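README, section 4: Worked example with a bound small molecule

Sections 1 through 3 covered apo chains. Here we extend the same pipeline to holo records, where the ligand is supplied as SMILES alongside the sequence. The molecule in this example is flavin-adenine dinucleotide. Nothing else about the input changes; the structure line simply encodes the ligand pose together with the chain.
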Amino acid sequence: MTRPELTPVDAAIIGAGFAGLSAAHALRAGGAKVLLLEAQEQAGGRVKTVQHADGHAYDKGGQFYCRDMTRIYAMVEKFGLTRRDVRKVPGVVAMLGGKRKVLETDFLEHGFFEQIFEADPHRPGSVLDWVLSLGLDAEGVAMIKSGCEEVMGRPIEELSFRSVLDCLSRFESFENTMEYACTEGMGTLAGLMAADLGENFRANAPVTAVDRRGGLFHLTTPGGTVTARKLVYAASPAVLRQIDWKAPQDQWLKALPDQFVAGKMIKIVMRYESAFWLGSDYGWLGQTDNPSGLSVMDASDPAGGMDVLAVFCGGTAAMALAGLTEDQTLARVMDIIEPMLGPKVRHPLTVVQTVWTDHPWVGGGYCTWAKPWDSADPQAPLREAHGGLYFTGAELGPAFTGFIEGALCAGEEIAGRILAAG
Ligand SMILES: Cc1cc2nc3c(=O)[nH]c(=O)nc-3n(C[C@H](O)[C@H](O)[C@H](O)COP(=O)(O)OP(=O)(O)OC[C@H]3O[C@@H](n4cnc5c(N)ncnc54)[C@H](O)[C@@H]3O)c2cc1C
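The generated complex, written as structure tokens:
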């Protein structure tokens, strides 16, 4: 049964990731009547927590933050959740050409971030073109390539240098972004923020079409049509095609997804009886050039009780594992990380595995990249208002672009602009 058409809300928001949640909270605080529509059965988007039968909460997507990410910090406090530290023992193990090497720091800290901001922001070509121009040896190039693929989710020969520099230039700091996690999980925070919106949040409400008539937006959802004076699209540009944009002035949105690529990403969290790697030469990070894009990180609570490794397979690594079953993926990953961590790594108590690649509602992980390599900025139109239609999302974060904090900032910013426009 479809619901009757509702009285128009001041602003409808498509997507209850942290950007949509943040926009909804800020708009409500500013006195606007909002409706936040989420396609999936819960809020969170690229952040999702499972409560496992072992009694622990596991973050399948976005998880870590740091003290400079003041909005997450504040939200975790506000909703009464528990901030925990993430252990970071110095030292990196790198598998290069099949040989194991122990390093003091990883290659992104050494060489990449140090130099990228000195480059011409209009430099044409790919990220790999720029890395090759640095005069590093083959191992240096391989490790930067692998580290970038894990962080960006795409082979760096596919990514425009300009779009990556544009993203990184919005970071407020590069201090340890894995300083904290939330014991109850970041998805729990998203759920609490959604619940706090009461009837202004609706789950299982994918917006399948948007039209404009009589000065209002008309949104088609399975539960009926929603009408709104303003509309905020708070999801990745990669999934814009989930919506049939019917109004003549919105036709440009049909071609827009071609301008973006979403990251390919698999995250595997493994909990152990104890952190058996402590005291060994493995510090906090293991990286490999084969497959490029695979890293394994100590994500444990140093206070005890949660000794976990998080494996991230991005770009080439995610592609190499595509189509395998969970068991096959895990077996392959174990073969890759055992030389870094030793045979005990094969005996986790709990494994939580998530494939984000080509996710129908979020596109992929961790974020979406602008594709063209020319001087046009494909994100520019998304930063403008189009007759009451606004865009937000982690990709448009004025700070910490592509991260949870970026999504929260972007949501807040768009709410401020809507409230100011009246
Ligand atoms: C594996 C992984 C690890 C990560 N690790 C970290 C980390 O440690 N720290 C960090 O800060 N960030 C991390 N990130 C990135 C971070 O999670 C994202 O940048 C951020 O959560 C994106 O938020 P968002 O609101 O912009 O978009 P999304 O989270 O993508 O939210 C968009 C929402 O819109 C909904 N939606 C889409 N289309 C429609 C429609 N037509 N109708 C209704 N709803 C729709 C989607 O279902 C989704 O819920 C990670 C991401 C991944 C995938």
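What to look for in the output: The chain has two domains: 9-51+59-85+181-259+375-421, 92-170+264-355. The mean pLDDT is 93.

Section 5 describes how to batch many such records.
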